[in-house]
């Protein structure tokens, strides 16, 4: 009798466990690469709006932010209930996307929407940018997803005004210097990503913080060499955060190619941008292993972080060249 009751009590726990396991697999599915131009055309047609300069970039920014809050499971980074609270790969992916969304929102507020340094900013972009900067861990009063939804609403208002030719206050300037400013932010993100991914295998590095400037100083003295090593518990988090960031950058670069077409053609930079996009597409290849492997450089097992770092470094080097090309007269 006791055994029978124990089985009856155990069955619900097993079923709940299987349900949570199934949900975690579903919620952990990475987003696919989509056709930015086609998606924008579909949205514009449904809203009866004209596609003007900046419309594609704004729409892509809205789509990325909407994915964060509307995907299966919703926004997981601030979950306090299972299975979200025990998941880490998708929250890391979310944070990578969120960083790129924040960077572009700031550049749109300070550069893309303003003609000069003395011109006034757009109110809707100011609202969106401030709402996006709430901590991604906030789950109540206010919740992160609630603030992000407010940011989406503000970006949609800006897009509507942008498509309205009678509203001259909403602007998006496709200038080479504006694009170079955003690429500078992307360059820093990719450089940091490459270093963190490479640190999956510990190594000693020389300190180059003050290289190139004899008069430069730093607040706290550091040694000539230091060891860089990612904790093994964080290796998969860094990997998926980088995957999320590169997915977002990939989609945004496709949007930039549409809006800044004339600038890129004038600089003969279309091929350069297409190569960057191709390298970033490689970062989204399916990971067939059930876990992120961390083999040594020439060992028997693969090191997925180093493979991803290779594509990230190539894309970063190409973006540096593209930004310098845009900055030339």
Helical content stands at 55-70%
Fraction of residues in β-strands: under 5%
Q: What is the structural class?
A: mainly alpha
Overall geometry comes to: globular
- The sequence of SSEs as H and E is HHHHHHHEEHHHH
The tally of strands reads 2
Structure description:
There is one protein chain. With 329 residues, this protein is mainly α. The protein has one domain (31-204, 224-327). 60% of the residues lie in helices and 2% in strands. A two-stranded antiparallel ribbon has the order 1-2. α3 runs antiparallel to α4, α4 (89-112) packs antiparallel against α7 and α8 (235-259) runs antiparallel to α10 (270-282). It is globular.
Summary, kept brief:
The protein is an all-alpha fold and 329 residues long.
Question: How are the SSEs placed, and which strands pair?
Answer:
Elements: H1 2-27, H2 36-47, H3 55-70, H4 89-112, H5 123-132, H6 144-163, H7 176-198, E1 203-206, E2 225-228, H8 235-259, H9 261-266, H10 270-282, H11 304-327
Antiparallel strand pairs: 1-2
Helix pairs in contact: 2-3, 3-4, 3-6, 3-8, 4-5, 4-7, 4-8, 5-6, 7-8, 7-11, 8-10, 8-11, 10-11
């Amino acid at each position: 009798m006791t055994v029978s009751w124990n089985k009856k009590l155990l069955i619900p726990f097993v079923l709940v466990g299987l349900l949570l396991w199934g949900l975690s697999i579903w919620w952990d599915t990475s987003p696919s690469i989509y056709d930015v131009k086609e998606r924008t055309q579909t949205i514009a047609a449904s809203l009866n709006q004209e596609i003007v300069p900046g419309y594609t970039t704004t729409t892509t920014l809205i789509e990325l932010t909407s994915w964060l809050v509307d995907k299966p499971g919703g926004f997981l980074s601030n979950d306090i209930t299972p299975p979200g609270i025990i998941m880490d790969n998708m929250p890391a992916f979310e944070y990578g996307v969120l960083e790129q969304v924040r960077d572009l929102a700031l550049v749109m507020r300070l550069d893309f929407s303003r003609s000069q340094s003395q011109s006034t900013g757009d109110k809707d972009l100011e609202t969106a940018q401030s709402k996006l900067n709430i901590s991604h861990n906030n789950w109540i009063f206010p919740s992160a997803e609630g603030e992000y939804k407010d940011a989406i609403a503000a970006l949609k208002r800006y897009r509507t005004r942008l498509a309205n030719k009678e509203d001259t206050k909403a602007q998006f300037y496709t200038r080479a210097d504006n694009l170079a400013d955003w690429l500078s932010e992307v360059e820093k993100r990719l450089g940091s990503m490459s270093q963190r991914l490479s640190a999956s295998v510990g190594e000693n590095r020389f300190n180059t913080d003050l290289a190139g400037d004899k008069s430069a100083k730093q607040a706290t003295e550091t040694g000539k060499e230091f060891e860089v090593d990612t904790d093994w518990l964080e290796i998969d988090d860094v990997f998926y955060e980088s995957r999320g960031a590169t997915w977002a950058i990939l989609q945004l670069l496709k949007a930039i190619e549409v809006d800044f077409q004339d600038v890129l053609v004038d600089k003969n930079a279309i091929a350069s941008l297409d190569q960057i996009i191709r390298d970033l597409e490689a970062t989204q290849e399916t990971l067939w292993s059930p876990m992120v492997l961390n083999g040594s450089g020439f060992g028997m097992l693969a090191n997925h972080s180093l493979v991803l770092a290779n594509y990230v470094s190539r894309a970063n080097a190409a973006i540096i060249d593209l930004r310098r090309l845009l900055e030339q007269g």
